[in-house]
Design brief:
Distance between the termini: 71 Å
Mean pLDDT: 77
Shape: globular
Amino acid sequence: MIGDESRRTAGLKKRLEQWVKFTLLPPLGAWVIRAIKGTMRLEQRGHEPVDALYREGRSIILAFWHAQQLMIPFGYRGPGSHVLISQHGDGEIIARIIARFGHEAVRGSSTRGGAGALRSLIKLGRSGKDVVVTPDGPKGPRQVAKLGVIQLAKATGLPIVPLGFGCSKKNSSRAGIASWCRIPSRGVCSSGARRSGSRARRMRPRLKPRVSNWSRL
């Protein structure tokens, strides 16, 4: 009897935890992201080449560093994308948060479900959808691009568009997802385009990324 009661209690606690994680946290997380954005003056730079691609009816591979994902929804200029997200339990929370910004999730990572996720991204890219990846991934090394994004570009023929978020340090506070990053009173989203087929290279972080570094080759 005592054992049955303990199991019921444990089961109830687990269901409650899952309800909080998957029902309450996503809308709260989306609200917090929008609230942080509302406290800063956000500028977008270097979006002209990306807008030109959209006017041509083309899709893109959007790439940004894993630690910069908090403000990225406000730098994206397309109609909606499919984002590669880890199959880890926390990935489900992130997937539900980004859905509130008009994006869909493709689940997988370099350590779990990666091959199937890559096939899904290739299929989506070839069908004319925007796809989104973090080239350094959740495991790192930090800000070192892996070959997956290059393979994706070669398989789909889509241009890689790097998107970065830089900020001033004035009146900044510590906030982030999966890693710490500074969220300030002033932020800059910078983007550009690279042709598919380029060699992978380390993309050095900058406080205010210059678009000329990502000009079409």
